[in-house]
Amino acid sequence: MPDALSVRTADVPAIPGTADAEAPTWAMAERADWVVAHARCDRDGDLTLLLEDDLAGSDAATVAAALVDHLRDHAGARVVRWFVRGARARDEAVAARLALAPSRELCQMRVPLPLPGGRAPVLPWRAFVPGQDEQAWVTVNNRAFADHRDQGGRTVEDLLALEAEPWFDPAGFLLHHDETGALDGFCWTKVHRDADPPLGEIYVIGVDPRAHGQGLGRALVLTGLDWLQRTGLGQGMLYVDADNVAAVALYRSLGFVAVSRDVEFRAG
């Protein structure tokens, strides 16, 4: 039987510039003077849990529930959302104990490069030109992702902010134009140099709805993977919503396999 569990408010240094009323409260759980977990809940209801790896499913659920109870009783916390990277079976047990249900699942998929079978891209393309292509990209992106909660509704200002990120490389932002010269699809890649070995990501891929039914999505994926391979990368990766059946089927047909999943749990 596990040692008795004690839970208390954690002493965490304040974040500079954060008002006391807005600062999140941390709680910690201990057994035999050994910290086995931390938790916090922000004012918007986002839960953060840091659980020791050796906590099994039912035990992890018990510890998490004790931490959340403490945050509720001592800080008035109300858990609305818990996002888990690399979710495991024990995380589902924790979520169930906290009365949270999965609301979204992102799969990370990977494929070795070059693709088996010598698949080659079939599209002409050119690289994104900063200061020239922003508005055209925003228009196509927002049409392609009209109903997507994360990627839809982008602005030129949003894109400019991403262009200022250290990882941004316009050479890997591939644009395809139709016979009239209008942008109708894109494959935006991202290189993770800090991974071991480095990874090439299909960051965002989009097709204007007016160009659907032409196989443009598949061709753009092939084009992006080919570009990543030509830069010297030996593995491609991407994230896809698990319920996007058509996209998952496309990626699997190209040799991608799921390696992990990120799950968002929400209160009912």
Polypeptide structure, described:
- The chain is of the alpha+beta class and 268 residues long.
- It has six helices and twelve strands.
- Strands 1-2-3-4-5-12-6-11-10-9-8-7 form a twelve-stranded mixed beta sheet.
- The longest helix has 19 residues.
- The chain is elongated.
User: How helix-rich are the residues, as a percent range?
Assistant: 25-40%
Order of helices and strands: EEEEHEHEEHHEEEHEHE
Query: What is the gyration radius calculated from CA atoms?
Result: 22 Å
Counting H and I runs of at least 4 residues, what is the number of helices? 6
Strand order of the largest sheet: 1-2-3-4-5-12-6-11-10-9-8-7
Average of per-residue pLDDT values: 91
Shape, principal axes of CA atoms: elongated
Give the CA-CA distance, first to last residue: 33 Å
Q: What percent of residues are in strands?
A: 25-35%
Uncertain ranges: none
Task: Outline the biggest β-sheet.
Answer: 12 strands, mixed
Structural class, from secondary structure content? alpha+beta
The beta-strand count equals: 12
